[in-house]
Amino acid sequence: MVDTKIYDSKDEIAWCPGCGNFSILEALKQTLAEMNLKPHEVVIASGIGQAAKTPHYINTNGFNGLHGRAVPPAQGIKIANKDLKVIIHSGDGDSYGEGGNHLLHGIRRNVDITHVVHFNQIYGLTKGQASPTTARGHKTTMQFDGSKNEPLQTLLFAIASGCGFVARSFSGNKEHLVKTLKQAIKYKGYALVDVLQPCVVFNHINTFSWYKERVYDLGSTDYDPTDKIQAMKKAMEWGDDGIPIGIIYKENKETYIDKIDYLREGPSLVDRKWDPKDAEKYMEDYK
Amino acid sequence: MKYNVLIGGAAGQGIDTLGILIEKILCRKGYFIHSHKDYMSRIRGGHNFTQIRFGLEPVYSHWPILDTIIGLDKETVEFHSERLREDGVIICDESIEVEDNRVIHIPMVKFAKEFGNHRAAGSVAAGAMFKIFGEDFDIVKEVFSEKFEKETADSNFNAFKKGYEFVEKNFEFPKPEKRNQILINSNDAIALGALAAGVGFFASYPMTPATSIMTKLSMKQDDAKIVVEQVEDEISAINMALGASYAGVRSMTATSGGGYSLMVEALSLQGITEIPIVVVDSQRPGPATGFPTRTEQGDLDFVLFSGHGEYPKMVIAVKNAEDAFYQTTRALNIADKYQVQVIILTDEYLADATQTIPPYDFSKVRIERYIMTKEELGDVEYKRYKPTEDGVSPRIMPGKIEGAVVMIDSDEHNEYGHITESAEVRTAMMNKRMRKMEGLVSEIQEPDYFGAENPEILLLGWGSMYGPIKEAVDMLNKDEISVGALIFGDLYPFPTRLLKKYSQLAKKLINVEMNFTGQLARLIRQETGIFTDQSILNYNGRQMDSYTIYSRIKEEVL
């Protein structure tokens, strides 16, 4: 195991005191350290938002792109260099709102990346508006009469779309979070992990204790995450009856790179050797 | 001597295939060819045609007057016979009832059926056409065998022969020498340029008229061991390409105006992150869906100003299939050298116009990446956005150098790529990025000039207007009219040297463009303060041909 200190960034952290992001960041560093990964071997990709600042607060490669657009560059990076570990850290608005289409098709494409969603059911950086996961009726700084829309059932959506690794964890349970992240990163394919986290400033309903009282670990039950129908039922469990954390669904699938012989067997695209003369033969088509 | 043949019919009747076969045979015989397509946004039916112009001298543009019409349906004959010269020939099936003494009715469908292939009717017509032009069988069989499976090749060849035997020779036509040439359109040329220049990743979403660039690359991806990915939308296309480019692979995307609109936010991301990228905008008429299968030069303003904020970029319009190949390889090198976006402007006319040109010289293509190795970086701490004299910061591949990480950010950032709110850092970073404009200016290629040495009339055009204007200038010069033309390829940064020289000589400056507002003229005013005196514009979705430009200059200018 490498020392977690090698992941420390010199950047000043702009998160609010008490934010769930801090424990997610610490868990991420511990996970990478336990997996013996060096900073240059990892890319943290993100969109825009508070969670999306994660790449700045950890000493690895980073791609802090546009709002909602974490998934496309993350896929491009992995396709270009299969030796890199590519992990997305972004919020629920970024991942499920503006980035919804990319997530859907990212799942279909099944590039071997991990997508960690900081799930706090509210918009933080823009100061307290509803996110795609905000509960119906939840009053916000924009939805004064409460959110009119149904919250997206994110994990159900992911399973239904064909995601091969669907999990949930909680920022208040570091041990569980590290274990889940490790499994997600080791999984070969698109791994989606919702991490429940309180927003101490803007979400006064789904607080630390609200989550804490409801979550229960599937790992301590006889739940079988390979049964897809069971998994879809499990993914629908939410609220006062309990919120399951752990691996909700897992299935081995061929990854994008596995499907391309020369990428699977050969070098990464970044190491491809090419001379312009190699393309000269393609001119034959035009003679 | 140049001849002009039109092949028309409904979508699904195989006009495209027939056109390609005829062009291939003529190309191998040594003719110079320029052909262009006119088709509708539908899969079956409608009216589509290909016009093939060929001769013993180079052909640069399409031409309105026809020598032969091959009509696979009645509409073709009705629509186009007005443009057929008096002693021209119409070849059509016996079932098409039309009163015109230029018609040669052939039992095309019947013959085709005799050989068990009702789709070979077009080949009967092609055979007839070859006989009419006094051509021989040479090369026909080999082209058919390359294009089709054996059985289909045989039935088409037999149908061709049957058509050939059915008609009499009509035109006297001098024969060309065989020459080493290729027959290609600009989209394929761009794809070939991308392959030559080592593009490793290409992400795109199908959109006419850009789609065939991706199709060509997709056909070659296994052989070239590259990745061509059809993505969910153009937003993903450019963001994914930026990701791959960040990782160190030469990356590219292509689209038309609507898709380019979706890419604009990410073009701005490119501006601040300085990840090299080449984007092709194959223009079609807008606004919105506009004319999906037709042509326009309407996106120049948009492309020049696309992307919020200020950042360096380069815009290059390609002029023809020969230029498209070399400009693509050049664009990719410039993008890497200055870590900028290079936009290649082309359009439907060029995408669907095939042309005979000398084979590309692959030994002229260089792949220049400007990516540092561990040894080149040395022992210094790596800073992705280190300020430098020319504004270009050191680029490395993430994951390749232990101890060095690559951080890029869409926020304003410091030299490490981390978010900043500092006024000083902001100013320094803006200055750093904008300094790259000086480098881009040093790369500028001046426009092509042709025509009279001291022109009284100076025509100004860009991109795909090259061919039509070139022929129009030749015709006007033959009429002893003092005309010259500057055709711009590089549009931003804007080349001014030749423009200043010729605009001082000429009495009249006329911009000739395929748009409503005269966007080149505006760019010229903006960059040089030079006003054009008159415009020749067209925005009906159909490329102006040389004859139209020639006639409009005579009517509107002289």
What does this structure look like?
The complex is a heterodimer of chains A (287) and B (558). Helices cover 29% and strands 16% of the residues of chain A. Chain A has 287 residues and is of the alpha/beta class. Chain A has a single domain (4-286), classed as Thiamin diphosphate (ThDP)-binding fold, Pyr/PP domains (Rossmann fold, 3-Layer(aba) Sandwich), CATH 3.40.50.970. Chain A has an eight-stranded mixed beta sheet, with helices on both faces. In chain A, helix 6 links the parallel strand 5 and strand 6. The mean pLDDT of chain A is 97. Chain B folds into four domains: 2-166, Pyruvate-ferredoxin Oxidoreductase, domain 3; 183-364, 3-Layer(aba) Sandwich (Rossmann fold), CATH 3.40.50; 371-443, no CATH class; 448-557, Rossmann fold (3-Layer(aba) Sandwich), CATH 3.40.50.920. Chain B contains 19 helices and 21 strands. In chain B, strands 6-5-4-1-3-2-14-7 form an eight-stranded mixed beta sheet, with helices on both faces. In chain B, helix 5 (140-147) runs antiparallel to helix 6 (150-166) and helix 7 (186-196) crosses helix 12. Chain B is globular. At the A-B interface, strand 2, helix 2, helix 4 and helix 9 of A face strand 7, helix 7, helix 8, helix 9 and helix 10 of B.
Q: Round the mean pLDDT of chain A to the nearest integer and report it.
A: 97
The H/E string of chain A reads: HEEHEHHEHEHEHEHEH
- The CATH class designation of the largest domain in chain B is Alpha Beta
Stated plainly, the CATH topology of the largest domain in chain B is called Rossmann fold
Strand order of the largest sheet of chain A: 2-1-3-4-6-5-8-7
Number of helices of chain A: 9
The CATH architecture of chain A can be named as 3-Layer(aba) Sandwich
